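[Meeting: bench + compute handoff]

Bench side (C.D.) handed over the final construct sequence. Compute side (W.E.) agreed to return the predicted structure before the next meeting so the bench team could plan truncations. Sequence as handed over:
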Amino acid sequence: MDSFTGRRVLVVSTNYAPEHAGIGPYSTQIAEQLAASGADTHVLAGMPHYPAWRVHEDYRGRWRLRETRQGVTVHRRRHTVPARQTAVRRGLFEASILAHGLLAPPRVRPDVVLSQLPSLAGGVLGARLARRAGVPHVVVVQDLMGAAAGQSGMSGAGRFAAPAGGVEARVLRSAALVGVVHESFTDRVAAMGVPRERVRVVPNWTHVRAPSGDRAKTRARMGWTDDTTVVLHSGNMGLKQGLEVLVETARLADAENRGGNGSEVRIVLMGDGHQRERLLGLAEGVRSLTFLPPAGDGEFPEILAAADVLAVTQKASVLDMSLPSKLTSYFTAGRPVLASVAAASGTAREVERSGGGVLVPPEDPRALLAAVRSLAGDPERCAELGERGRAYAERRLGRRAGLDRVTGLLREALAGG
């Protein structure tokens, strides 16, 4: 890899380490790769808060902070963190990020700026800082904010979809290059007025290691018996995930488990998010459902591999605004993926392309439970699906290849600028 020695790169990403879920790990690994390649790398970030939507205890009460992590200089700015998500609260969150970033930008002059969306404020800040320095601005689209407002089901979000989409479109049109993590985003980005020749597909990569422990020991430690089919959902518990379908699937499993219909099915929700308390309330009295806190980096891949089925769910309205980052970890774990998502979504296309999973209609707990029963009764098919997913991850989702695609965008922008 060619060196970035002598170059200064500014990465704008609200989410950054020590966040270990969502976009944070990708922003962190990009910045650390740039630093390892010789770049003077700076990151403008928020205070760590995701996926719990609570500021990490080590950062509470801090207004501004400059720290060095793995050779990267991180400039943190305080912002609001809404415990409950509504359109107005999310708007205040974005506004506070934008205001503090404008009031106190990093005192560095970059050669190129890289922004990670979906932070709308981050995109605006990145565009402004690049314009002020007279350097290229590169945007990587992880989620589309305007589409998210229209598709997420968040209270009051519909009326903000058009304004958010308008700001997002201006940011993307002004960028030197736009990377999208899945080709299903390309048409929508082009419809915003971004020339297709400036759009590059830069898929996310697997940011966790492959499991290496004893699966039986992990199951025993988790209390999962051999005659239990464990369906695990890991990650953010937000609105767009539509996790109510798993609560209702567990409720149906309660009745079947009592009736002795096949092996016991257990649904496990592992993670955090602003919908967690609400889901706990909905699940009161449901015996076939377990909630677990987020797993540490060391045990996370082992727990994924110890499950029988890995679930990804989305509301039926979610089509082309988001691709769950958990898929890369799921495929690496080598377990079959069960996707309760719209057939026209980018998530469905990714699962189909991997060959590592099964699709069921979204928001349909009976269909989901039937698919679980079908997989539980066919161990050979489960093994085949898991191996296909693992092979897909090795072939397409390797960390080095993924990082090279993103740093390649920066090289292209610098060469053209």
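W.E. noted at the follow-up: The mean pLDDT is 91. C.D. will use this when planning the next construct.
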